[in-house]
MOSC domain-containing protein (Streptomyces cupreus), 180 residues
Amino acid sequence: MGGTVTAVSSNGTYSFSKPNRDSVRLIAGLGVEGDVHAGVTVKHRFRMEKDPSQPNLRQVHLMHEELFDEVREAGFEVAAGQLGENVTTRGIDLLGLPVGARLLLGAQAVVEVTGLRNPCAQIDGFQKGLMKQVVGRGEDGPVRFKAGVMSIVLVGGVVRPGDSVKVELPDGPHRPLEIV
């Protein structure tokens, strides 16, 4: 099972979107070098207000580029980095991965998937009505969050557009992703 990195993005200040970069450096245990969300403890502002000492399970945000194709069909234009992700991929069913799946990004970097991104109201601030496109219902009725997955960095390294993405599934019974 594999895919491709199509874009990498980071921002040193809090903002909804993140500018695309030629490369980003992932640092084990921290996240994307120079990104505002990098750190051992949580850096998401809302979560910091509740408990700033909780571990940062949101060091790297990955999003599948196929989502952009899907929302385009509904009349929205979204490009890599605009929804705040650090790594945009193609060819990987990120939302179908279990907790603990490992993604080898490029030649060296490894991230471990911790859960789903919780889409926030800022998505509608970015483009009115877009929130309904990234939060939907599955065929059997439950809410389905489609705004990417969160991960922690196990092995650091440089990640660039065009790099391969390889998936390693965890042993044992797989736990479905939940919001982190």
Q: What stands out?
A: The mean pLDDT is 94.
